[in-house]
């Protein structure tokens, strides 16, 4: 008899995360080993609360529309961390698995999510439940995997956010070039916490290095004084300067808030890195007349379907398909991955990596891809990232001038267990 599957999402969303979900659901529907596919409503929290959306019962046309539905509104996401001592939470998940005949648990997310997938499935197996744990990679930060790119070349979500920044800087340049007599300096802040893959993507806007563009990654320590000096040197040469900085660049205390995973939430901080740099530049003075200004894009970096990469979108689907195939084959303890097979003529294959080797491990931006002066990235990075942003615009269905997103019906599995409040939420 086929066993049922729970698929859930965790962490920050991406423009293409729903296409990974679609890949799992559509593939699982064709597999005799997998019965009903349930979606954990808002991630592992929904599993704990026994809020399981029946994805198998959804209209196939709506599932297909997940392809161009951004973010995670379809089944929701969460930032709930399962910690070692939360034994009641783990007991509850096992009860849910038993009550709903779950044989497959697939978690889509970053390295913390891979840890959840690994931990939950391992505990289930130790308790005699035949549950296959599988991970589906998702992170715009591109920090899941190994620094040698042998386990994971890149993660779905990154290519689209990289494309966003390539276009964002191009458009910002047009304004900066036009308004530089009054506003010669524009400081832009990119997401990525302390991982530099997103701000590095700004260089894709100017691969021939023709613009007065400086890029500062959190991995390469610098000072406000040095940034001020660098900006003024560029102003003397070009009369204007654009600066892209990591949101996690160390410029002193900015009142950081943290989520339940312990990750900094820079967009919720008291003041931004970009604002501190802008204030410093204006206080110390510029080499030309005018003022420095700053732009801090928000979560549109990770939910803008208009800027999604066609390459990223396609790969997200096949990663989901691979995750479902691994599950159906009983390949417990793996994350579906993308591996590059040809660097000169971009080609990839879909493979697997042990969850234990990617769980809670942050891949860093390679130091060799940062320029010696610390203000740019190298051509090797451009060779790595350029294929990921694609060449074409995606086509999004439109009705009455509005984007047509998937509309899943609130069809949930019958609740068979008593109500439950997740352990970490009880003190709130």
Describe the structure.
Residues 5-304 form the Phosphofructokinase domain. Diphosphate binds at residue 12. Its cofactor is Mg(2+). This is Pyrophosphate--fructose 6-phosphate 1-phosphotransferase. Strand 7, helix 8 (224-238) and strand 8 form a beta-alpha-beta unit. The chain is α/β, with parallel strands linked by helices. Helix 1 (17-28) runs parallel beside helix 10 (310-328). It folds into two domains: 3-157 and 307-361 and 391-425, 3-Layer(aba) Sandwich (Rossmann fold), CATH 3.40.50.450; 159-306, Phosphofructokinase domain (Rossmann fold), CATH 3.40.50. It starts with a strand and ends in a 25-residue tail after the last strand. Strands 3-2-1-4-5-12-13 form a seven-stranded mixed β-sheet, sandwiched between helices. Strands 7-8-6-11 form a four-stranded parallel β-sheet, sandwiched between helices. It has a two-stranded antiparallel ribbon with strand order 9-10. The chain contains twelve helices and 15 strands.
Key terms for this structure?
428 residues, Rossmann fold, 2 domains, 32% helix, 18% strand, magnesium, Phosphofructokinase_dom, metal-binding, kinase
Helix-strand layout with pairing:
Layout: E1 3-9, H1 17-28, E2 34-40, H2 43-48, E3 52-54, H3 60-65, H4 87-99, E4 102-109, H5 111-126, E5 132-137, H6 158-179, E6 185-190, H7 197-200, E7 213-216, H8 224-238, E8 241-246, E9 257-258, E10 264-265, H9 273-284, E11 292-295, H10 310-328, E12 334-342, E13 347-354, H11 355-358, H12 379-385, E14 398-399, E15 402-403
Parallel strand pairs: 1-2, 1-4, 4-5, 5-12, 6-8, 6-11, 7-8
Antiparallel strand pairs: 2-3, 9-10, 12-13, 14-15
Helix pairs in contact: 1-10
């Amino acid at each position: 008899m086929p066993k049922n599957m729970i698929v859930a999402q965790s962490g920050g969303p991406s423009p293409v995360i729903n296409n990974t979900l679609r890949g799992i659901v559509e593939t699982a529907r064709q597999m005799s080993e997998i019965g009903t596919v349930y979606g954990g409503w808002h991630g592992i929290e929904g599993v704990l609360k026994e809020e399981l959306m029946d994805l198998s019962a959804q209209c196939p046309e709506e599932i297909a529309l997940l392809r161009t539905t951004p973010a995670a509104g379809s089944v929701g996401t969460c930032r709930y961390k399962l910690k070692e001592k939360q034994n009641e939470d783990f007991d509850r998940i096992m009860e849910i698995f038993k009550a709903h005949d779950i044989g497959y648990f697939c978690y889509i997310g970053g390295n913390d999510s891979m840890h959840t997938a690994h931990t939950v499935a391992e505990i289930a197996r130790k308790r005699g439940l035949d549950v296959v744990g599988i991970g589906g990679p998702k992170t715009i930060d591109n920090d899941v995997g190994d620094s040698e790119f042998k386990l994971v070349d890149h993660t779905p979500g990154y290519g689209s956010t990289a494309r966003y920044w390539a276009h964002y800087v191009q458009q910002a340049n047009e304004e900066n070039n036009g308004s530089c007599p009054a506003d010669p300096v524009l400081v832009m802040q990119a997401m990525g916490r302390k991982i530099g893959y997103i701000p590095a993507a700004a260089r894709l806007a100017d691969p021939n290095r023709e613009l007065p563009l400086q890029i500062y990654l959190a991995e390469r320590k610098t000072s406000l004084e040095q940034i001020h000096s660098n900006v003024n040197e560029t102003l003397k040469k070009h009369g204007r300067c654009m600066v892209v900085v990591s949101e996690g660049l160390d410029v002193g205390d900015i009142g950081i808030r943290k989520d339940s995973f312990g990750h900094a939430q820079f967009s919720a901080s008291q003041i931004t890195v970009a604002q501190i740099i802008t204030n410093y530049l204006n206080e110390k003075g510029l080499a030309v007349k005018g003022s420095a200004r700053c732009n801090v894009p928000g979560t549109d970096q990770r939910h803008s379907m208009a800027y999604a990469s066609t390459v990223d979108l396609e790969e997200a689907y096949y990663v989901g398909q691979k995750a479902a195939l691994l599950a159906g084959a009983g390949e417990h303890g793996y994350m579906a991955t993308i591996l590059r097979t040809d660097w000169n003529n971009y080609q990839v294959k879909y493979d697997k990596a042990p969850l234990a080797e990617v769980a809670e491990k942050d891949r860093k931006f390679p130091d060799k891809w940062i320029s010696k002066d610390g203000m740019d990235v190298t051509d090797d990075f451009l060779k790595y990232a350029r294929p990921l942003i694609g060449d074409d615009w995606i086509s999004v269905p439109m009705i009455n001038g509005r984007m047509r997103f998937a509309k899943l019906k609130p069809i949930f599995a019958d609740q068979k267990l008593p109500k439950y409040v997740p352990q970490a939420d009880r003190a709130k």
